Amino acid sequence: MTRIGIDDIAFYTSNFYLDLHILAEKRNTDHDKYASGIGIEKIGIPAPDEDIITMGANAAIQILEQCDRHKIDTLLFATESSVDQSKSAAVFVHRLLDLPSECRTVELKQACYSSTAAVQIACALVARNPEKSVLVISSDIARYDLESAGEATQGCGAVAMLIKADPRILSIEPGSGCYSADTWDFWRPNYCSNPKVDGKFSIINYIRTAKECWKNLAKNTGVDFNSIYRFCYHLPFSTMGLKAHIKLGKEMSAGKTQQELEAQVLPSTVCCRQIGNCYSASAYIALCSLLDNEQDLAGKNVAIFGYGSGCAGEFYYGVVSDSYQKMLRTDHNKKLLSAREAIDFSTYLEFYQASDTKKYQDGNYTTPAVTPGMFRFSGIRNHARMYDRCADDL
Ligand code: COA
User: Fold this and answer.
1) Are 56 and 139 contacting, i.e. CB atoms less than 8 angstroms apart?
2) I need a labelling partner for 236 at 20 to 30 A (CA). Which of 45, 74, 154, 315 fits?
3) Contact at 8 Å (CB) between 121 and 290?
4) Measuring from each residue's beta carbon to the nearest atom of ligand 1, which residues come in under 6 Å?
5) pLDDT (tens digit, 9 = 90+) per residue, 101-139?
6) What is the pTM assigned to this prediction?
7) How far is CA 198 from the centre of its chain?
């Protein structure tokens, strides 16, 4: 049977971040609650001329510079912070990336879960035509009300993955475990720019969904918890994945200690601590984090859990390819995070207010040039969103 999975993976985040020491002081909160309790130190804040399209294009261009773009016959864009009610983010990015016109383009939504649905759909498409590849982009801006419990769990980021036959990073095993239920833990009505959240319930719902998905994965594939070396979870904040894994592991593993269980997840949480929540992109930025921060994964099983409030979840696993290290961008990724610019509290508020869309309502608006990224959102002309490619080098 043809092996299908992740052949290449790259991520991107804004060049700007807010250090949570600053937020802790302004919100009169113990910084340890952020650093230890939720496990986030810095949150990525998009510049006024960045959005899911620019971040997604900035992630994907890294992959496209090293593959045959004419073999890509589908672009799936997973997001829950969409920029248009009708036109898919995939179409915008398709032009920016100069993909073939015969490419299929579509956007997927189910809160933070849609990236995992996109990966599974991509695998099915490649199984139908193993000569072709599918580009999956997942990009989100996690935004909550100012002074809300969720404020410290904001963030932004995008991940791009090339799904193809004979993958050089992760062969995804057929079969997975899904779970869906109609719940109200997190949602964003069309008339709201920020989500409605029942934070405590969302944690309970996440853990319940992880357990149900694992049980369904085990039932469908016969996989044993102890055969999985490392786990990547959707990370709305880094301790969420750890908390869920410890609860799951105590039930499913044959006597693994808390320390052993933590070691199975911690390498995948390094980026989340530096970026914050990236909604649908977060489980796959966790995978990038694992690949960059763990020593030797060749031949090992890695499980991935995608969760989207509302709710839908899926657990699946894959086998890391022998030559995966040749595909890594570890130095580039570390530099991407370390070279970011820290912003002060008033700039944070300015960037936060900049995403208010009321100013677009007369149909024309020019955004200030701020991001140093390759792609930028330059404004609105006659209600159409405009994008520029600003640089030729990564
Ligand atoms: N030092 C160290 N840890 C501290 C602390 C301190 N001073 N103060 C609190 N903590 C710990 C708490 O014990 C808790 O950990 P625990 O759950 O393991 O006990 C954690 O920090 C969070 O504290 P809590 O009081 O529960 O935070 P909160 O009520 O302000 O909000 C969320 C937490 C997650 C509910 C909130 O950030 C939110 O609504 N986020 C958005 C929704 C979300 O991300 N949901 C996740 C599933 S998708």
Assistant:
1) yes
2) 74
3) no
4) 30, 32-33, 36-38, 149-150, 153, 186, 197, 199-200, 202-203, 206, 236-237, 240, 309
5) 999 999 999 999 999 999 999 999 999 999 999 999 999
6) 0.97
7) 21
